[in-house]
Each structure stands twice: as C-alpha cells, then as structure tokens.
Design brief:
Elements lengths: L4 E4 L2 E5 L2 E5 L8 E6 L5 E9 L3 E6 L12 E8 L1 E4 L7 E3 L15 E4 L10 E2 L4 E3 L3 H4 L4 E2 L6 E3 L5 H11 L1 E2 L8 E10 L1 H14 L5 E7 L4 H21 L3 E7 L1 H15 L12 H9 L3 E3 L5 E9 L8 H9 L2 E5 L1 H5 L6 E8 L15 H25 L6 H18 L7 H12 L12 H7 L5
Parallel strand pairs: 9-17, 14-20, 14-21, 16-17, 16-18, 18-20
Antiparallel strand pairs: 1-7, 2-3, 3-6, 4-5, 4-7, 5-6, 8-10, 11-19, 12-13, 12-15, 19-20, 21-22
C-alpha cells in the first residue's frame, strides 16, 4: 500500500452523496478515502469516477455540515477493506462494519476487500445438502440447498421481515453436515428504525444472535453506504465460510432498497438511465453480489444466500425481481391474496421454485419419499387452484365430485400446511402433507408409487 495522500481545497461541488474534486493526484477507481471537514471529523468514502481533470467521491456518511472551502481528502491508496477476526459472531454492526452494540472494535486477523475476489468456475462444487428453515412451504415444497442463492420476492406491507427473522432463528443444517458449525449473517439494508429494533430484539431474545452477525443500515444513512452494506456482510460471510470453515446463511433485506440507492447514485453521477431509471449495469452489479454464494472444492465451509426484495406494485416483471430471477436459482414468492386470508407466511407455492432442490433432498439428505411427496402436493394444489377457477364460473354445486374434493384439499393445504404458528421440523411438515393426501382418491395420486401409498396412506383407505 502506498503512503496516504492528503489533498486540500480541491473540492468544488457537493451534490447528494457525491463530492466533486479537481484532480491533482494519481488515484484509482474504488480507492478508499477519508473526507475531513472543518469539524475535524473524518467521513468514509470511495472514488466513484476519475477522468483527466476531475474525480468524484461517494460519501458513505452524511454530508451535513461539510463546507467545500475547508474540505480535505485523504486517499488511502487501496480499495475498501474489512478487518475481520475472532469474536465476529454475536456482534451488531452498522452498514460499513462499525460496532453498534457498545462492544469493543472488531479483532483484526485478516483485512479482506469488500468487493470479494473472482472465483474460478472450475473451483466451484455443486451445491448439496439441505438447510432446514422451519418453514413448511420452503422445506417441503421449495427446499433451500447449502451453497444456493434463493431470493424471496415480497411486496410492500407483506410480512417478509417476520419471515426473515423466523428463518434466522430456526435455520439449521440437516444431513451430512448436521453436526458442523452453522452461522447466520443478517443484513438489514435501508430499514426503518423500528424494523432495525425488531431485528435486533428478535435475535437477542431468541438466542440466535450468538451464532449471527447483524448488519444494520438505516433508512436515514447515506445512500452510498447502502451500496456497501451487502458487500461488507458478504465479506464477513466469506471470512466465516472460507477462513473459519463454517456453513453460512446470508439473509439480506431489502435488496430493492439497495437498487433504489444504486439508481440515486447513478443519477447523481449523470449516467444515462435504463429501464425505469435504473442504470444499465444493474444486472452485472447484482450478479457481483449474488454470485458470491456457493461451495468451493477443498474448502470446508459454504455460503448460502437468501436475499429478500419487495416488488413495487407487486410487479414480478419489475427490473429488480426480473434481473434477480435471471441470476439466482429460483424464487420464493409471497402472495397478497394469502396474506389477506390470514395465511402466514403467505408463500404462494405455485410460482415459487428452487432449481437446486433435487441436489439436497431425498435419500441420504432428507427422506427417501420427500421428492415424491413434494411433487404430488404441488400437482394436487395446482389442480385445486384450477377447481377454484372453475367454481367461480359454474358454482361449487356444478363441480364434479373429484373437483369438490380438490377444492377442499386446496383450502386445507393453505390452512394446515402453508399456515403455521410456529417453526416445524421437516418430519412434521411431511406428516401434514401425508395427512392432506389421505383426503384424495388413490387414483389421483399419480406421483406416488404403490409402495408409498400403501406405507403412508394405506391405513386411511
């Protein structure tokens, strides 16, 4: 690292989170800086753009009280790094890794670049093994696999925050790694103060904080800081996974707030906007975050991502969920109709999908009958939704007996399997699933073998 360089009286404009300077030194893109105002306080920033005569700096803290005439900028000479070491678990940090819990500064064993390092695709191993979240609609129907990136698509006002906390509290390993170290990295991005207090209080009271690291970026923080929160969180997760050998689940909420900050900063830079005003590089920017999940050959730990995003106007074609769906391996979708019906969590299993589910369930991972049961429940619920549509046209009395059976099955599936008041084990979820299938004619259970029908459903027939 080259010596630090101090530049004085170079700032000529301050616009939103960006500070513009006359260029008088050799600097690099993304280089870390400290901006010192007349009060003597140092504000963290990074170089956002460089040309022949000028450069711009993203301020990661409030620019309030910063005067151009007295501003001094100290260039660090390297990209932003995060100092990490023992004692990371159990800590509550702000969006750029500074303690919020009143504890001591983090012990530093390694200083890692927050943008991560590119991974050779050949070094990646296929994600395997099951992570039990305690949520039946996920564990049974759209299973999360260790090393996967599986986003949750929500909408404004839906209970994704409660769902995120429930998963953080109850998630555990199953299968081959059940006795291995498991950790949670939870990042709140652009959240309100009451939401941040809810996250903190819930993890502390449940005891889950002892195996977690909580990053809290508040809605009042600088928008440029919001762009760094998931990077600091993922850097901590990579340290825990690939340096400490833990299996890490990263929960990030809300990625839509991240993308809104990306749009705001891009607009301040004067960049040409793309669809709905978002920058054209948003796809590659999101990919630089999501692709940090995975398993590495020879590495004892793994990194699994569960990013949560809200869809404006519940539009799944909005750029944020649209691009996220292309990068990740499936999606869990929350339904406003189920939420209005009192179903919690209101997970709509039909548009939900886990593309790597087959690699983490079945014999040797969960239960030999898990794949067949999940497939049969999905098919039966899809038929029930069709029966509802038909009943809305001809009336329930006009339905055939089989369609009325499916209509009853759909209502019970939502009330008894999707809806749950507390966490469930996979075995409890499967028991509910088998009980629901007992109400359907044996001839309709085409996804199950005769042996499975005899073993699990024979007593009721």
């Amino acid at each position: 690292m080259r010596p630090r360089l101090m530049v004085e009286n170079a700032a000529y404009r301050l616009e939103g989170p960006l500070l513009f300077l006359h260029r008088s030194v050799e600097v690099g893109y993304n280089e870390a800086v400290e901006v010192v105002g007349s009060d003597g306080g140092a504000r963290l920033g990074r170089v956002a753009a460089v040309d022949l005569d000028t450069l711009s700096i993203e301020l990661l803290e409030s620019s309030s009280g910063l005067g151009l005439a007295e501003t001094r900028v100290r260039f660090v000479g390297e990209p932003l790094r995060f100092g990490l070491g023992p004692g990371l678990l159990g800590r509550i940090l702000d969006g750029v890794g500074r303690p919020l819990d009143g504890g001591p500064p983090l012990a530093v064993e390694r200083r890692l670049r927050i943008d991560g390092l590119p991974l050779n695709p050949v070094a990646r191993a296929t994600p395997r093994d099951f992570i039990e979240t305690g949520i039946s609609a996920i564990d049974l129907m759209n299973s999360l696999v260790r090393g996967q990136k599986l986003p949750l698509f929500s909408g404004p006002g839906l209970p994704h925050d409660r769902l995120a906390v429930a998963i953080a509290r109850h998630a555990r390993l199953r299968g081959a790694g059940a006795g291995e170290d498991f950790a949670i990295v939870f990042a709140g991005i652009g959240v309100a103060h009451d939401t941040a207090d809810f996250f903190r209080r819930s993890l502390e009271q449940s005891g889950a904080l002892s195996r977690s690291v909580l990053f809290l970026n508040l809605a009042g923080d600088a928008s440029a800081q919001r762009l760094l929160t998931p990077r600091f969180a993922l850097t901590a997760a990579e340290y825990l996974a690939f340096s400490c050998g833990k299996h890490v689940l990263v929960i990030m909420t809300d990625m839509t707030n991240y993308c809104e900050a990306l749009r705001e900063v891009a607009g301040a830079k004067g960049e040409v906007p793309g669809r709905k005003g978002f920058p054209g590089y948003m796809y590659s920017d999101l990919a630089s975050l999501y692709e940090r999940a995975g398993c590495l050959r020879g590495a004892p730990g793994t990194l699994t991502q569960l990013p949560i995003l809200t869809m404006p106007l519940d539009d799944i074609g909005h750029p944020v969920p649209d691009l996220s769906g292309y990068i990740t391996e499936g999606q869990i979708v929350l339904s406003r109709a189920l939420d209005r019906s009192g179903i919690e969590p209101p997970i709509d299993v039909l548009p939900s999908l886990s593309r790597l589910m087959k690699g983490g369930i079945g014999e040797g991972y969960t239960d030999a009958d898990h794949p067949a049961l999940s497939s049969q429940l999905y098919a039966a619920y899809a038929r029930a939704v069709q029966a509802r549509l038909l009943a809305s046209v001809v009336g329930e009395d006009g339905l055939a007996e089989t369609d009325r059976r499916y209509l009853e099955f759909g209502a019970r599936f939502e009330r008894e399997l999707i809806h749950q008041g507390e966490s469930r084990t996979l075995e409890a979820s499967m028991a509910v699933g088998w009980a629901l299938l007992r109400r359907l004619p044996a001839g309709e259970l085409t996804r199950l073998s005769d042996a499975q029908i005899a073993v699990h459903l024979g007593a009721a027939r």
